[in-house]
Structure formats: structure tokens, C-alpha cells
Amino acid sequence: MLRNTPKQWGLPSQGLHWLSAGLVLYLLVHGWWMTHLAERADRLPNYATHASVGYVLLGLVVLRMLWRSAQAVPAHPAGAPVWERRAAQVSHVMLYLLLLLEAYLGWALAGTLSQPLDRTLFGLVRVPPITRPGNRSLHETLASAHEVFAWVLAALVVVHVAAAIYHWKIRRDDVMQRMIPGRSG
Description:
Layout: H1 11-36, H2 43-69, H3 82-111, E1 120-121, E2 125-126, H4 136-171
Antiparallel strand pairs: 1-2
Helix pairs in contact: 1-2, 2-3, 3-4
């Protein structure tokens, strides 16, 4: 099933969801590792890899938003309280906004490095900088903001996963199963 239905996410929605989730997890873990544990000499190549994965995620998020805007969104389970519906709507909007904000901050941050960074998508496509190199003050501001919003994103991801488990184990509805490929709703 390609298209979403009132009861199930379609395969493109599921695929974009899980691919995005994997990239977000990778970026959160890799970002922390490269800024806290990686040897200083290894950081520049790690920044380039991190940026490339971030550009891919940005493209997927935009594609996902376009696909979602052209598709039906499965309805909330019958009898879901109003607060649950609102919380779901707000958390999904916040996830999209945080993903876009983090991508923008990372892209801007990559441009402020005083050493040249391979500003390409895995060496294949040039990604133009959106800031000027060498501005240390801007670099520090963007680095701090990128880190803070990464922690906020990580917290929201934990809430998102907890909500899925809540629906699966406590509410015993099909909210989580709708996003699992191969399951029919």
C-alpha cells in the first residue's frame, strides 16, 4: 500500500519515518561522540560526515513533509481523549520544526569553521555555505544552539517513543502498529 489511509500509514510514509529515525539517532549519537570523545585531529573529517548525513536528513524531512501534506493522515483511535490528540499534533509539529531548525543550525555552523570543511554531500554534490568562515563569535553561538536543540530533540524523541509504547502496551490500540511496514490496519 503506497498511499496513507484513514487507518494506516503507507509504505512511503513508513519508509521515510524509519529512515529519518535512524538518521536522527545516528546524528545524535555521532554528534555527541565527535564533540566529546573523538581525537581533535579526527574531528574535521567527522564534522564533514556529520554534515553530509545532516543534509540527507534535511532532504528527507522536506520530502516527508511534502508527502504528508499530499496524503491522508490516519485518524486518532476512536475514543482518544482531546488532550492526547492535541499532544500528538503538537509533538509532531515540534519534531518537524526541531529537525528543520537543527539542520539549519548545523548547516550554518559548518560554514563558520575557520578550517575548510568538505562542503559536499558525501563528495558528490557541492553544498553552498550559508555563513562566512572564521567568525568565532557566530561559531560559538551556533554551536551552543545546535547542541541545546539536539538535547531538546533527543528528549522529544524519547517522549515520542514512550507515547508509541504507551499506545502499544497500555492503550492497546493500533497507533504504533500503523507505522510498522508489513502490518495492515
